[in-house]
Structure formats: C-alpha cells, structure tokens
Design a protein that fits this description.
275 residues; alpha/beta; Endonuclease, Chain A; 2 domains; 7 strands; Lambda_DNA-bd_dom_sf
Length: 275
Amino acid sequence: MSERLSARMRALATELTTLRVRSGLTTRGAARRLGISSASLNRTENAKREASTEELGGMLAVYGATTDDRRAVLELAGELPVPGWLGMAPDPAALARFEAQATTIVDFAPTSVPGLLQTAQYARAAQAQSMAFGTALEQRVSARVGRQAVLSKLSAPEYVAFLDEAVLRRPVGGGVAMAAQIRWLISRARQSNVTVRVVPFRHGGYRNPGRFAVLRFRKSSPLVYLEHEGSSGFLDAPEHVELFTAITATIASAALDHIDSVNLMTRIAADHDRS
C-alpha cells in the first residue's frame, strides 16, 4: 500500500536528491560529509524524514547549490506542514519531476492540448498568449517539449489524455500548425502506453472542472495537478484524489473511445488543411 506523503515534501526530497547526484556524491559520501547516517539521508531523499534547518543548510553547502537552488529548497522547506501546494504559475518544475516518477497519468484538457502532447510550433503559439517573447518564450517551449521524453522512456507511464473537441477546432498558430498538431496527437496515440480520447460537441454538456491531471505512483500516494492562471499546483489529500478520480469517470463516459477519437481527429485535421 502506498504511503501518503505531502506534495511539497516529495518535491523537496526530489530536489535534494537531484542536487546530491549533480554534485557527484554518493549517499554514503554525502552523509559522511554532513555528519549524519546514510539511513537518515536515504529517508530524507525518500520523503520519509524531514531534515532539520541545519541539515538543509549543510546539504546546500556540500552540494554546491546555486542561488536559484537555495531559493527553491528553502521555499519548499518553509511550507512543508501545509497540505496541498497551490499558488504556482502553470508548468512548475515539480510537475516534470512527478511525471517522471509516475506509473499512470490521466490528463484532462478542456481548452488546449496537454503539454506532454504539444508540438513545438503549437507550444510557441500557446505560450505567446501568456505574453512570453524572445529568449523567455523559447525557454518555455524547450522546457515543455523536453518534458515529453517521459512518454518514450523505457519505464514510461501509462498516459491517457481527455480533450474537449474545442481544443482541436481552435486553430492555435493557424490552420497549418493546428493540422500538424493534430497529426502529432494521432501519431502519439499509436504508442502502446498513450491513449487520446475526445469529448465531442454532440455529447452536449458534461462536468468540466478545468485543466487537471491525476498522477499515480508505484510506492507513493496519488497527486492531483490543477492548472489555472495564477493558481496552479498540487492536491494530495485522499478526498481530493477521490473527487477528481470520480470526475475523470464522468468525463470518460462522455468521451469517444480511442478509435473513434482518432477518426474524429483525422477529420478535423483535414478541415484545418482546407481552411
């Protein structure tokens, strides 16, 4: 049975592990330099133990943390007791790390193609709507496209994306770019671990709470990721996971199956070609 651990504590554990590995230190070597046992460090890196302020300071020094690294670690450590983790901008760094650890990801996208399935051209057009330009825009696009490697790795998660038909009809980046995006969705849907399902207009209304994803893990409790302008983040309470699991079931009942979804996407791509 998975053990419930807060999203913040898990994110902090991953951040500290990343810094140690980047420094070239083994767990044993780092523990020796920090003056703690290897078992204690292992528990900290597995989010089973909360490091003291002194230990965190030592880790940041021993691992050669940058100013940005220090800020990220201290922000996480300062809010560990609080359940959930909201108030972030969309696509927080922790999301990519949780995606890399997940065994299954169910993604609901009512207004835009999910980040794990976007082409670079679509991502660039979508990010431009957030007033990102120049270097900042390209960094966001690169980060978003880079996340997609998780779907092709050896131990890739099972990924299911539910899209509203409106996502496919709206020509983000223009008709040519949108046709290419839809054909990319179709090619991704041919992967054994990827399923794309569309909620068609003809279904009428259905329960739509906005963009969210439910991530499940082999040894840790599930998380819900919410993405809303100015208040994205994670929910980790069991009742929230149950709520969004139930919402997913209602969306699934409204969506076309995999084959019919691919057929609909093929027709919509042709419509964009003609536009």
